[in-house]
Amino acid sequence: MTAPQPRAHLAHVPAYKPGKPPVAREDLVTYKLSSNENPYPPLPGVVTAAHAAVDTMNRYPDMGNGLLYSGLAQELGVPESHLAAGTGSVALIYQLLTAFCEPGDEVVYAWRSFEAYPIAVSTCGATSVQVPVLADGRHDLDAMLDAITDRTKVVMVCTPNNPTGPALTQTELDAFLGRVPTHVVVVVDEAYLEFVRNADAVDGIATYARHENVVLFRTFSKAYGLAGFRVGYAVAPEPIATALRQVSLPFGVSSVAQVAAVASLEAADALLERVDALVAERDRLQAALAAQGWDLPDAQGNFLWFALGERTADFALACDDAGIVVRPFAGEGCRVSVGETEANDRLLEVAATFV
Ligand SMILES: *Cc1c(COP(=O)(O)O)cnc(C)c1O
């Protein structure tokens, strides 16, 4: 008798390592800086709206995400038919690969980049082609172009890049898109879009509108502080958005999540003020770390990247001791989310002993 066997490529799916939660301590308050979450608690108005939605949990959610699509369409100035929602933008990565990749098709992306990419690619039976980021944490766009073959179906760029931090410029993205064959889907993962402050920043909406093969992925998890509710969306030309909707889980985005996302769009001003405060903290940290002698990549998201190599585990341990949990990538470096001011101050203290 033989036991049931999952599809062979599951043997090659790496595990996702989530950022650890902090352990409670008696001597000091501990902080989680390991998952790029928003440290602010939800806005009261958003909580009230979500509570109201709980009262109808016996009903299925609106499968068409009607209020969410109309709110987004108005906010972004795009047709509703160009939107596709999912349970976090991670789900949209799976949807896109499911919709576009046959087994063995290639997906080109930078590495190190978002940990979910290789997992999603191998789960969908496609093949990852990872192009190392440059020494300063930026995408090597020329090498990514060179990596495109007849088998390439999708190229993903992550801007700002998680975990290294730098963002693409519009000039770089335009030059890149001008050279990618038009039958290749280009995903622009903009999970941290709201935190970008560099000159010549990417205008995702203007960009996708000029290309038939460009998809933007966005999320309510980071700037909008809804990580626990799982809502993300794609903005794409209609044929791609349609394909993304076709392969979505029926009723994926819960009714509470839809309501909270719509309420968050309505509260955008208040939420984006908080983003400004986080950006100010990020820039305070970058300046203080530079003064300590660190040469970190340009941080355009809500996190910093310390390329510590062999010292990665030691740094993570020292942070643990100081009551802040960071995200180590063994042998490569630590990603540290911008958090509460007290947590950020402790990071500076630890970093000072590691320069
Ligand atoms: C956090 C993150 C996402 C989105 O995650 P969801 O919570 O699934 O919306 C997408 N891409 C990158 C690069 C991220 O860091």
Could you explain the architecture of this structure?
37% of the residues lie in helices and 15% in strands. Helix 3 (89-100) runs parallel beside helix 4 (116-123) and helix 3 (89-100) packs across helix 8. The protein has helices at residues 44-54, 66-76, 89-100, 116-123, 141-146, 170-179, 204-209, 238-246, 255-266, 268-292, 312-321, 341-352; strands at residues 31-32, 83-86, 106-111, 127-132, 152-158, 185-189, 214-219, 232-235, 303-306, 324-325, 327-329, 333-337. It is globular. The model has no long low-confidence stretch (mean pLDDT 97). The strands form three sheets. Strands 2-8-7-6-5-3-4 form a seven-stranded mixed β-sheet, sandwiched between helices. The chain has a three-stranded antiparallel β-sheet with strand order 9-12-11, covered by helices on one side. With 355 residues, it is of the alpha/beta class. The protein binds pyridoxal-5'-phosphate.
Q: For the largest sheet, list the strands in their spatial order.
A: 2-8-7-6-5-3-4
The average pLDDT is 97
Rg value: 20 Å
Principal-axis shape equals globular
Largest sheet, strands/sense/barrel: 7 strands, mixed
Instruction: State the end-to-end distance.
Output: 59 Å
- Which small-molecule ligands are present, each listed once? pyridoxal-5'-phosphate
Unreliable parts: none
Structural class: alpha/beta
From N to C, what is the helix and strand string? EHHEHEHEHEHEHEEHHHEHEEEH
- Helix-residue proportion: 25-40%
Task: Count every helix, treating DSSP H or I runs of 4 or more residues as helices.
Answer: 12
Q: Strand-residue fraction?
A: 15-25%
**Structure summary, number of beta strands:** 12
